[in-house]
Amino acid sequence: MTKKIRIAIQKSGRLQEQSVKLLKECGLSFSNGPNRLKASCYSFPAEILFLRDDDIPQYVEDGVADVGIVGENVYIEKQKEISVIEKLDFSKCRLSIAIPREKEYGGPQSLNGKKIATSYPNIVRQYLKEQNIEADIHEISGSVEIAPGIGLAEAIVDIVSTGSTLLSNGLKEVETVMKSEAILVSTKTLDPEIQLLLEKLIFRIKAVNTAKN
Ligand code: PRT
Ligand code: ZN
Description:
Blueprint: E1 5-10, H1 16-25, E2 38-40, E3 46-51, H2 56-62, E4 67-71, H3 72-78, E5 82-87, E6 93-100, E7 115-118, H4 121-130, E8 136-139, E9 155-160, H5 164-168, E10 171-180, E11 182-187, H6 192-212
Parallel strand pairs: 1-3, 1-4, 7-8, 7-9
Antiparallel strand pairs: 2-3, 4-11, 5-11, 6-9, 6-10
This protein binds phosphoribosyl ATP (PRT) and zinc ion.
């Protein structure tokens, strides 16, 4: 029996639709009902695993999935021993610092001694270290944008796409910490048969993305 490459994608959320679309454009057909955890492909030796995006780096590091599609922001935050194979050109966003609109911004150094709320503590810690800033990181898992309004923090670091969430919460974007887009990640060492399947897949992804640009 030929081996199958196991591909982890987001179960539901902002990455889901385009991850499915990309794989389908690469000729991988599978059914993705709302309650499925995995699906077999009819047309390519692959199995699709549907997971929360936060769990994908761990599954790939453990080799439960051979490859996965995640946002670069999640890849960097999770600090797992996995390889970045390809940038995928969708789900583009940035991780930015924002402060209350009425406050004056005096550069990164003005964050010294402040409280920063974020769902990305590792990325923020690294940024503060590089900038030589001592600030207090307050980790929260959702609705980060409400933190300044309720007195939990003086600044936030969160994902920004159009900026409308910041605007409607009375915040302004003052600094970009990192840019992000969807990426394909893989296990560090792959079985040779799976490696060949991955190379086929990468070839198709490149062809699909070149045709678009
Ligand atoms: O359930 P699961 O854990 O799988 O999903 P999730 O809720 O953690 O993630 P999801 O689906 O919201 O986002 C998945 C990935 O999409 C992120 O990790 C980013 O790489 C990417 N992405 C792209 C975004 C956005 N754009 C985005 N706008 N992720 C989140 N947002 C949110 C942001 O948190 C903020 O609340 O949208 C709001 C800002 O958007 P604007 O347009 O108002 O600026
Ligand atoms: Zn998530």
